[in-house]
Design goal:
By secondary structure, the protein is of the alpha/beta class. The chain is built from nine helices and nine strands. The longest helix is centred in the C-terminal third of the chain and has 18 residues. The radius of gyration is 20 Å and the shape is globular.
Length: 294
């Protein structure tokens, strides 16, 4: 039997459930998930292998109109998802009308590759509304195969997976068959910490934060990690640390528990907070953190 392989790139507005869907496909928690917009900042690959196929799923940041350099770099990841897709997944949720960026929407309507338009979160809607949205999106994006799912409830996820397998081109695998993602271990450490900050801090704080893991020492029984939480201002540093250091300790404890599940080992995690002024608008700093595609 011929071997199939290809890139399946998932795009959509913020909070449509892209990360939940990719994690469901891959069977691992690769992308962090919160209810806040801009949770996903990078393009994250999740690789699913079978005897005669390899699907390289790609979770991208939610589409927004960039307000500063970091957001512009995030949108570059979305642009790259159009360039190498063998199958494009465009996710919407009930109640949504269109992408926030008309240029991206136009690209979807004129895509040269198969488009699967998935209406997510149907578990929050009525049958009547679901039928109405199916008709709406079939008219709006006539080049797409439109179907309904609930990524959270795992409804119809297998059906979409089977459809993707049908659409994949014949190709040898792009990655070794035992590889799960393209990201290094430190990336997932940084994301686990950032997820807890998104969950526990308000307003601008989560969006002003970047994580850098400076040390990663692994033995047979334990991994010792030292990570730095970078903020843009001294006042933000004080908020992250909090009263008697309790909020920072909570972030460390929760992240450590998640990382112990992810690595299946005992974790010793040290967290520090540093000020790195205006890093979100500094191209040199963004390159250092892996954002700029230049």
């Amino acid at each position: 039997m011929a071997h199939k392989a290809g890139f399946v790139n998932i795009i959509g507005n913020p909070n449509v459930g892209k990360s939940t869907l990719m994690n469901a496909f891959v069977g691992e928690r690769l992308s962090i998930i919160t209810s806040k917009a801009q949770t996903t900042r990078h393009r994250i690959l999740g690789i699913v292998n079978g005897d005669d196929f390899q699907i390289v799923f790609s979770d991208t940041p939610g589409i927004i109109k960039p307000a500063y350099e970091l957001q512009a770099s995030m949108m570059d990841f979305v642009k790259s998802a159009f360039e190498d897709a063998d199958v494009l997944i465009y996710m919407v949720e009930i109640g949504e009308k269109e992408l926030k960026d008309e240029q991206f929407f136009n690209k979807i309507q004129h895509a040269k590759v198969p488009v699967l338009l998935l209406i997510n979160k149907i578990d929050t809607s009525s049958q009547e509304e679901v039928e109405e949205k199916l008709l709406y999106w079939k008219e709006k994006v006539p080049n797409a195969q439109v179907t309904v799912i609930s990524a959270l409830e795992n409804f119809n996820v297998q059906g979409v997976f089977d459809k993707i397998l049908e659409l994949l081109p014949e190709s040898p695998p792009y990655y070794p068959k035992d590889q799960l993602t393209d990201k290094p271990e430190r990336f997932f450490i940084n994301e686990a910490i950032r997820e807890k900050i998104l969950l526990h801090y308000k307003k601008e704080i989560p969006y002003s934060v970047e994580i850098e893991t400076e040390e990663f020492f692994e033995s047979d029984t334990m991994i010792r990690i030292r990570s730095v939480i970078m903020v843009e201002r001294e006042t933000q540093k004080g908020i992250i640390i909090g009263h008697k250091g309790a909020p920072l300790k909570r972030v460390g404890t929760e992240a450590r528990k998640d990382l112990e599940k992810f690595f299946d080992k005992k974790i010793h995690l040290e967290l520090y907070v540093k000020v790195n002024k205006n890093w979100r608008s500094d191209k040199r700093q963004l390159r250092r953190f892996g954002y700029n595609n230049e």
